[in-house]
Amino acid sequence: MSTYNFDKVINRTNTASIKWEQLKKVFGTEDVLPMWVADMDFEPPHEVAAAIRKRLEHEIIGYTFVPPSTGESIQHWLKKRHDWDIDTSWISYATGIVPAISTAIQAFTEPGDKVLVQSPVYDPFFKMIEKNHRTVVNSPLLLVNNHYEINFEQFEAKLKEGVKLFINCSPHNPGGRVWTKEELTKMADLCYQYNCLFLSDEIHSDLIYAPHVHIPVAKLGSKYQDMIITCIAPTKTFNLAGLKASAVIISNRKLRQSFQDVQALNGTSAINTFGIVGMEAAYRYGSSWLDALLAYLQRNVDEATAFIHDNLPSIEVMQPEGTYLLWLNLRKLHLGDSEIRKLLINRGKLGLESGNKYGPGGEGFVRMNIACPRDILKDGLNRLKQALI
Ligand SMILES: Cc1ncc(COP(=O)(O)O)c(C=O)c1O
Prior knowledge:
By secondary structure, the chain is of the alpha/beta class. The protein is 41% helix and 14% strand. It is globular, with a radius of gyration of 21 Å. It binds pyridoxal-5'-phosphate. It comes from Heyndrickxia ginsengihumi.
Protein backbone atom coordinates (compact mmCIF):
# COMPACT_ATOMS: atom_id res chain seq x y z
CA MET A 1 0.00 0.00 0.00
CA SER A 2 1.16 3.47 -0.80
CA THR A 3 2.28 5.60 2.11
CA TYR A 4 0.97 8.66 0.32
CA ASN A 5 -2.68 9.57 0.61
CA PHE A 6 -3.67 11.13 -2.69
CA ASP A 7 -7.35 10.68 -1.75
CA LYS A 8 -7.07 13.38 0.90
CA VAL A 9 -9.14 16.41 -0.07
CA ILE A 10 -7.26 19.55 0.91
CA ASN A 11 -8.89 22.94 1.19
CA ARG A 12 -6.59 25.28 -0.71
CA THR A 13 -8.40 28.54 0.00
CA ASN A 14 -6.48 31.27 1.80
CA THR A 15 -3.26 30.23 0.09
CA ALA A 16 -3.65 32.75 -2.78
CA SER A 17 -4.11 29.76 -5.09
CA ILE A 18 -4.68 30.93 -8.65
CA LYS A 19 -6.52 27.71 -9.43
CA TRP A 20 -8.98 27.98 -6.53
CA GLU A 21 -9.12 31.68 -5.68
CA GLN A 22 -9.19 33.47 -9.00
CA LEU A 23 -12.37 31.87 -10.24
CA LYS A 24 -14.35 35.09 -10.41
CA LYS A 25 -11.63 36.70 -12.50
CA VAL A 26 -11.24 33.75 -14.87
CA PHE A 27 -14.74 32.28 -15.06
CA GLY A 28 -16.87 35.23 -13.94
CA THR A 29 -18.21 33.32 -10.94
CA GLU A 30 -16.94 31.71 -7.75
CA ASP A 31 -19.07 28.59 -7.96
CA VAL A 32 -17.17 26.46 -10.47
CA LEU A 33 -15.06 23.45 -9.58
CA PRO A 34 -11.57 24.35 -10.81
CA MET A 35 -9.98 21.76 -13.09
CA TRP A 36 -8.07 24.19 -15.23
CA VAL A 37 -4.57 25.60 -14.55
CA ALA A 38 -1.89 22.90 -14.29
CA ASP A 39 -1.17 22.41 -10.65
CA MET A 40 -2.31 19.49 -8.54
CA ASP A 41 -4.53 19.26 -5.48
CA PHE A 42 -2.08 16.87 -3.80
CA GLU A 43 0.53 17.45 -1.12
CA PRO A 44 4.06 17.30 -2.53
CA PRO A 45 6.58 14.88 -1.02
CA HIS A 46 6.83 15.95 2.64
CA GLU A 47 10.62 16.14 2.39
CA VAL A 48 10.22 19.37 0.42
CA ALA A 49 8.39 21.28 3.16
CA ALA A 50 10.72 19.69 5.74
CA ALA A 51 13.79 21.00 3.92
CA ILE A 52 12.28 24.47 3.59
CA ARG A 53 11.28 24.46 7.27
CA LYS A 54 14.78 23.43 8.22
CA ARG A 55 16.27 26.24 6.18
CA LEU A 56 13.89 28.64 7.91
CA GLU A 57 15.37 27.73 11.26
CA HIS A 58 17.88 30.33 10.17
CA GLU A 59 15.70 33.34 9.67
CA ILE A 60 18.08 35.44 7.60
CA ILE A 61 17.13 34.92 3.99
CA GLY A 62 20.02 36.68 2.33
CA TYR A 63 21.27 36.58 -1.24
CA THR A 64 21.62 32.91 -2.01
CA PHE A 65 23.68 31.09 -4.61
CA VAL A 66 22.73 27.69 -5.97
CA PRO A 67 25.08 25.26 -4.21
CA PRO A 68 26.76 22.44 -6.18
CA SER A 69 24.57 19.90 -4.33
CA THR A 70 21.48 21.22 -6.16
CA GLY A 71 23.09 20.67 -9.55
CA GLU A 72 24.14 17.21 -8.42
CA SER A 73 20.56 16.40 -7.41
CA ILE A 74 19.40 17.36 -10.91
CA GLN A 75 22.19 15.37 -12.52
CA HIS A 76 21.31 12.34 -10.43
CA TRP A 77 17.58 12.67 -11.16
CA LEU A 78 18.10 12.91 -14.92
CA LYS A 79 20.36 9.87 -14.90
CA LYS A 80 18.06 7.82 -12.72
CA ARG A 81 14.70 8.71 -14.28
CA HIS A 82 15.70 9.42 -17.90
CA ASP A 83 19.08 7.76 -18.33
CA TRP A 84 20.51 11.08 -19.43
CA ASP A 85 24.07 11.99 -18.50
CA ILE A 86 24.64 15.68 -18.03
CA ASP A 87 27.50 17.69 -16.65
CA THR A 88 26.43 20.01 -13.84
CA SER A 89 28.25 22.87 -15.58
CA TRP A 90 25.60 22.71 -18.33
CA ILE A 91 22.88 23.93 -15.94
CA SER A 92 21.57 27.48 -15.69
CA TYR A 93 18.75 28.30 -13.30
CA ALA A 94 15.62 30.30 -14.02
CA THR A 95 12.56 31.41 -12.11
CA GLY A 96 10.38 29.28 -14.37
CA ILE A 97 10.31 27.77 -17.80
CA VAL A 98 8.22 30.57 -19.26
CA PRO A 99 10.87 33.15 -18.28
CA ALA A 100 13.56 30.76 -19.54
CA ILE A 101 11.83 30.56 -22.91
CA SER A 102 11.69 34.32 -23.11
CA THR A 103 15.40 34.51 -22.23
CA ALA A 104 16.21 31.94 -24.92
CA ILE A 105 14.23 33.89 -27.50
CA GLN A 106 16.18 37.03 -26.60
CA ALA A 107 19.52 35.19 -26.54
CA PHE A 108 19.21 33.20 -29.76
CA THR A 109 17.06 35.31 -32.08
CA GLU A 110 16.70 38.91 -33.20
CA PRO A 111 13.51 40.97 -33.40
CA GLY A 112 11.54 39.87 -36.46
CA ASP A 113 13.16 36.41 -36.58
CA LYS A 114 10.95 33.38 -37.07
CA VAL A 115 10.29 30.97 -34.21
CA LEU A 116 8.54 27.68 -34.93
CA VAL A 117 5.84 26.00 -32.82
CA GLN A 118 3.34 23.22 -33.41
CA SER A 119 -0.18 24.08 -32.32
CA PRO A 120 -2.28 23.38 -30.42
CA VAL A 121 0.31 24.00 -27.76
CA TYR A 122 0.89 25.62 -24.35
CA ASP A 123 -0.20 29.17 -25.06
CA PRO A 124 2.69 31.15 -23.48
CA PHE A 125 4.87 29.86 -26.35
CA PHE A 126 2.98 32.21 -28.67
CA LYS A 127 2.92 35.01 -26.14
CA MET A 128 6.66 34.91 -25.43
CA ILE A 129 7.50 34.94 -29.14
CA GLU A 130 5.12 37.81 -29.89
CA LYS A 131 5.93 39.90 -26.81
CA ASN A 132 9.59 39.69 -27.82
CA HIS A 133 8.64 40.99 -31.28
CA ARG A 134 9.61 37.78 -33.05
CA THR A 135 7.39 36.07 -35.61
CA VAL A 136 5.43 32.93 -34.81
CA VAL A 137 5.69 30.29 -37.52
CA ASN A 138 3.20 27.52 -36.90
CA SER A 139 3.20 23.99 -38.21
CA PRO A 140 -0.03 22.61 -36.70
CA LEU A 141 -0.05 19.03 -35.51
CA LEU A 142 -2.11 16.52 -37.43
CA LEU A 143 -5.10 15.00 -35.67
CA VAL A 144 -5.07 11.36 -36.77
CA ASN A 145 -7.49 8.94 -35.10
CA ASN A 146 -7.78 11.18 -32.07
CA HIS A 147 -3.99 11.28 -31.70
CA TYR A 148 -1.53 14.04 -32.60
CA GLU A 149 1.14 13.44 -35.17
CA ILE A 150 3.78 15.73 -36.58
CA ASN A 151 3.22 17.05 -40.07
CA PHE A 152 6.83 16.58 -41.15
CA GLU A 153 6.31 17.82 -44.68
CA GLN A 154 4.94 21.09 -43.36
CA PHE A 155 7.50 21.19 -40.54
CA GLU A 156 10.31 21.06 -43.10
CA ALA A 157 8.62 23.59 -45.35
CA LYS A 158 8.43 26.02 -42.42
CA LEU A 159 12.09 25.45 -41.53
CA LYS A 160 13.01 26.25 -45.11
CA GLU A 161 11.55 29.73 -44.55
CA GLY A 162 14.55 30.44 -42.32
CA VAL A 163 13.44 29.68 -38.78
CA LYS A 164 15.98 30.48 -36.03
CA LEU A 165 14.45 28.60 -33.11
CA PHE A 166 11.99 25.74 -32.72
CA ILE A 167 10.13 25.40 -29.41
CA ASN A 168 8.89 21.87 -28.78
CA CYS A 169 6.62 20.82 -25.95
CA SER A 170 7.85 17.37 -24.90
CA PRO A 171 5.70 15.72 -23.63
CA HIS A 172 2.98 17.66 -25.32
CA ASN A 173 0.60 19.94 -23.46
CA PRO A 174 -2.37 19.83 -24.10
CA GLY A 175 -2.47 16.58 -26.12
CA GLY A 176 -0.42 14.38 -23.77
CA ARG A 177 1.78 12.94 -26.51
CA VAL A 178 5.10 11.51 -25.42
CA TRP A 179 7.13 11.91 -28.58
CA THR A 180 8.87 8.76 -29.78
CA LYS A 181 12.55 8.41 -30.51
CA GLU A 182 11.75 8.38 -34.23
CA GLU A 183 9.69 11.57 -34.05
CA LEU A 184 12.29 13.37 -31.94
CA THR A 185 15.14 12.25 -34.15
CA LYS A 186 13.33 13.41 -37.26
CA MET A 187 12.55 16.82 -35.74
CA ALA A 188 16.14 17.20 -34.49
CA ASP A 189 17.56 16.11 -37.86
CA LEU A 190 15.48 18.65 -39.72
CA CYS A 191 16.47 21.42 -37.29
CA TYR A 192 20.11 20.39 -37.73
CA GLN A 193 19.77 20.41 -41.49
CA TYR A 194 18.20 23.87 -41.55
CA ASN A 195 20.44 25.36 -38.86
CA CYS A 196 17.63 25.95 -36.40
CA LEU A 197 18.12 25.79 -32.63
CA PHE A 198 15.85 23.38 -30.77
CA LEU A 199 14.36 24.37 -27.41
CA SER A 200 12.79 21.40 -25.69
CA ASP A 201 10.32 22.26 -22.92
CA GLU A 202 10.40 19.07 -20.85
CA ILE A 203 8.48 20.32 -17.82
CA HIS A 204 6.04 17.38 -18.04
CA SER A 205 8.75 14.78 -18.65
CA ASP A 206 8.43 13.01 -15.29
CA LEU A 207 4.70 12.50 -15.72
CA ILE A 208 4.68 9.56 -18.10
CA TYR A 209 2.37 6.52 -18.26
CA ALA A 210 3.82 3.11 -19.06
CA PRO A 211 4.62 1.81 -21.59
CA HIS A 212 5.54 5.25 -22.90
CA VAL A 213 9.04 6.52 -22.23
CA HIS A 214 10.14 10.13 -22.29
CA ILE A 215 13.33 10.68 -24.24
CA PRO A 216 15.24 13.89 -23.58
CA VAL A 217 15.93 15.03 -27.12
CA ALA A 218 19.42 16.19 -26.09
CA LYS A 219 20.50 12.63 -25.36
CA LEU A 220 19.76 11.44 -28.88
CA GLY A 221 23.24 12.02 -30.18
CA SER A 222 26.33 14.17 -30.07
CA LYS A 223 25.35 15.53 -33.47
CA TYR A 224 22.65 17.60 -31.74
CA GLN A 225 24.74 18.71 -28.77
CA ASP A 226 25.33 22.17 -30.13
CA MET A 227 21.75 23.06 -30.98
CA ILE A 228 19.61 21.92 -28.05
CA ILE A 229 18.34 23.89 -25.07
CA THR A 230 16.39 21.75 -22.58
CA CYS A 231 14.13 23.19 -19.90
CA ILE A 232 13.17 21.07 -16.91
CA ALA A 233 11.63 21.81 -13.52
CA PRO A 234 10.52 20.04 -10.36
CA THR A 235 7.46 22.26 -10.21
CA LYS A 236 5.03 20.29 -12.38
CA THR A 237 6.35 16.90 -11.25
CA PHE A 238 6.09 17.58 -7.52
CA ASN A 239 3.37 20.25 -7.44
CA LEU A 240 5.64 23.14 -6.49
CA ALA A 241 4.71 25.78 -9.08
CA GLY A 242 4.87 28.59 -6.53
CA LEU A 243 8.55 27.88 -5.88
CA LYS A 244 9.36 29.36 -9.29
CA ALA A 245 12.46 27.25 -9.87
CA SER A 246 13.59 25.57 -13.05
CA ALA A 247 16.76 24.46 -14.79
CA VAL A 248 17.96 25.06 -18.31
CA ILE A 249 20.46 22.56 -19.67
CA ILE A 250 22.69 23.65 -22.52
CA SER A 251 25.79 21.63 -23.30
CA ASN A 252 27.22 24.05 -25.87
CA ARG A 253 29.38 26.54 -24.02
CA LYS A 254 28.76 29.47 -26.38
CA LEU A 255 25.00 29.05 -26.35
CA ARG A 256 25.02 28.70 -22.57
CA GLN A 257 27.06 31.87 -22.25
CA SER A 258 24.62 33.75 -24.51
CA PHE A 259 21.71 32.50 -22.41
CA GLN A 260 23.42 33.59 -19.19
CA ASP A 261 24.42 36.94 -20.68
CA VAL A 262 20.75 37.76 -21.33
CA GLN A 263 19.87 36.65 -17.81
CA ALA A 264 22.57 38.97 -16.47
CA LEU A 265 21.32 41.79 -18.68
CA ASN A 266 17.78 41.40 -17.37
CA GLY A 267 18.90 40.75 -13.79
CA THR A 268 17.21 37.34 -13.78
CA SER A 269 20.16 35.05 -13.03
CA ALA A 270 19.17 34.26 -9.45
CA ILE A 271 16.39 32.07 -8.12
CA ASN A 272 14.97 32.35 -4.65
CA THR A 273 16.27 30.61 -1.56
CA PHE A 274 13.27 28.35 -1.08
CA GLY A 275 13.16 27.44 -4.75
CA ILE A 276 16.70 26.14 -4.47
CA VAL A 277 16.09 24.21 -1.25
CA GLY A 278 12.75 22.80 -2.44
CA MET A 279 14.10 21.80 -5.84
CA GLU A 280 16.99 19.89 -4.33
CA ALA A 281 14.81 18.11 -1.76
CA ALA A 282 12.27 17.11 -4.42
CA TYR A 283 14.90 15.68 -6.75
CA ARG A 284 16.73 13.94 -3.90
CA TYR A 285 13.80 12.41 -2.08
CA GLY A 286 10.78 12.51 -4.42
CA SER A 287 11.21 9.36 -6.47
CA SER A 288 8.93 6.98 -4.58
CA TRP A 289 6.31 9.72 -4.12
CA LEU A 290 6.35 10.20 -7.89
CA ASP A 291 5.91 6.50 -8.56
CA ALA A 292 2.88 6.45 -6.26
CA LEU A 293 1.51 9.61 -7.87
CA LEU A 294 1.79 8.14 -11.36
CA ALA A 295 -0.17 5.06 -10.32
CA TYR A 296 -2.88 7.30 -8.86
CA LEU A 297 -3.00 9.53 -11.93
CA GLN A 298 -3.22 6.54 -14.24
CA ARG A 299 -6.34 5.40 -12.37
CA ASN A 300 -7.79 8.89 -12.62
CA VAL A 301 -7.20 8.83 -16.36
CA ASP A 302 -8.83 5.41 -16.63
CA GLU A 303 -11.83 6.36 -14.50
CA ALA A 304 -12.39 9.60 -16.37
CA THR A 305 -12.10 7.84 -19.72
CA ALA A 306 -14.59 5.14 -18.69
CA PHE A 307 -17.03 7.69 -17.27
CA ILE A 308 -16.97 9.83 -20.40
CA HIS A 309 -17.27 6.78 -22.63
CA ASP A 310 -20.33 5.56 -20.71
CA ASN A 311 -22.04 8.89 -20.08
CA LEU A 312 -20.95 11.23 -22.84
CA PRO A 313 -20.25 8.97 -25.80
CA SER A 314 -19.99 11.82 -28.30
CA ILE A 315 -16.93 13.19 -26.46
CA GLU A 316 -13.61 11.68 -27.45
CA VAL A 317 -10.87 11.49 -24.82
CA MET A 318 -7.39 11.79 -26.27
CA GLN A 319 -5.53 9.15 -24.25
CA PRO A 320 -2.66 10.95 -22.54
CA GLU A 321 0.69 9.17 -22.81
CA GLY A 322 1.99 11.64 -20.26
CA THR A 323 0.84 14.74 -18.28
CA TYR A 324 -2.20 14.95 -16.01
CA LEU A 325 -4.21 16.80 -18.59
CA LEU A 326 -7.15 15.29 -20.43
CA TRP A 327 -7.73 16.74 -23.86
CA LEU A 328 -11.37 16.24 -24.72
CA ASN A 329 -12.67 16.49 -28.27
CA LEU A 330 -16.18 17.97 -28.21
CA ARG A 331 -16.42 18.66 -31.92
CA LYS A 332 -19.26 16.22 -32.44
CA LEU A 333 -21.41 18.52 -30.30
CA HIS A 334 -21.08 21.21 -33.01
CA LEU A 335 -20.75 24.02 -30.50
CA GLY A 336 -18.40 27.00 -30.55
CA ASP A 337 -15.75 27.37 -27.86
CA SER A 338 -17.58 30.21 -26.12
CA GLU A 339 -20.82 28.22 -26.15
CA ILE A 340 -19.03 25.23 -24.62
CA ARG A 341 -17.47 27.46 -22.01
CA LYS A 342 -20.83 28.97 -21.09
CA LEU A 343 -22.42 25.53 -20.72
CA LEU A 344 -19.55 24.30 -18.57
CA ILE A 345 -19.65 27.35 -16.32
CA ASN A 346 -23.38 28.01 -16.10
CA ARG A 347 -24.89 24.55 -16.35
CA GLY A 348 -22.05 22.34 -15.13
CA LYS A 349 -20.39 24.73 -12.66
CA LEU A 350 -17.10 23.45 -13.97
CA GLY A 351 -13.94 25.43 -14.75
CA LEU A 352 -11.93 23.94 -17.64
CA GLU A 353 -9.53 25.43 -20.17
CA SER A 354 -11.04 26.19 -23.57
CA GLY A 355 -9.24 24.52 -26.45
CA ASN A 356 -8.95 27.62 -28.63
CA LYS A 357 -6.54 29.06 -26.06
CA TYR A 358 -3.88 26.69 -27.43
CA GLY A 359 -3.90 28.07 -30.95
CA PRO A 360 -5.09 26.68 -34.29
CA GLY A 361 -6.35 23.11 -33.96
CA GLY A 362 -7.53 23.58 -30.37
CA GLU A 363 -11.03 24.70 -31.32
CA GLY A 364 -13.79 22.40 -30.10
CA PHE A 365 -11.60 20.85 -27.40
CA VAL A 366 -11.39 21.45 -23.66
CA ARG A 367 -8.53 20.64 -21.31
CA MET A 368 -9.37 19.02 -18.00
CA ASN A 369 -6.81 18.77 -15.20
CA ILE A 370 -7.35 15.42 -13.48
CA ALA A 371 -4.59 15.77 -10.84
CA CYS A 372 -6.97 15.77 -7.91
CA PRO A 373 -8.36 13.34 -5.32
CA ARG A 374 -10.79 10.87 -6.82
CA ASP A 375 -13.78 12.41 -5.03
CA ILE A 376 -13.07 15.73 -6.73
CA LEU A 377 -12.56 13.97 -10.04
CA LYS A 378 -15.95 12.25 -9.73
CA ASP A 379 -17.58 15.56 -8.86
CA GLY A 380 -15.94 17.14 -11.92
CA LEU A 381 -17.05 14.34 -14.22
CA ASN A 382 -20.63 14.63 -12.99
CA ARG A 383 -20.49 18.35 -13.65
CA LEU A 384 -19.17 17.69 -17.15
CA LYS A 385 -22.13 15.38 -17.74
CA GLN A 386 -24.54 17.94 -16.28
CA ALA A 387 -23.15 20.60 -18.63
CA LEU A 388 -23.09 18.65 -21.85
CA ILE A 389 -25.71 15.94 -21.77
C1 LIG B 1 4.60 23.09 -21.35
C2 LIG B 1 4.70 24.00 -20.17
N1 LIG B 1 5.78 24.79 -20.02
C3 LIG B 1 5.91 25.62 -18.97
C4 LIG B 1 4.93 25.68 -18.00
C5 LIG B 1 5.07 26.62 -16.84
O1 LIG B 1 6.37 26.75 -16.48
P1 LIG B 1 6.84 27.71 -15.30
O2 LIG B 1 5.77 27.72 -14.25
O3 LIG B 1 8.11 27.06 -14.85
O4 LIG B 1 7.07 29.04 -15.92
C6 LIG B 1 3.79 24.88 -18.10
C7 LIG B 1 2.73 24.96 -17.09
O5 LIG B 1 1.65 24.46 -17.25
C8 LIG B 1 3.68 24.01 -19.21
O6 LIG B 1 2.62 23.22 -19.37
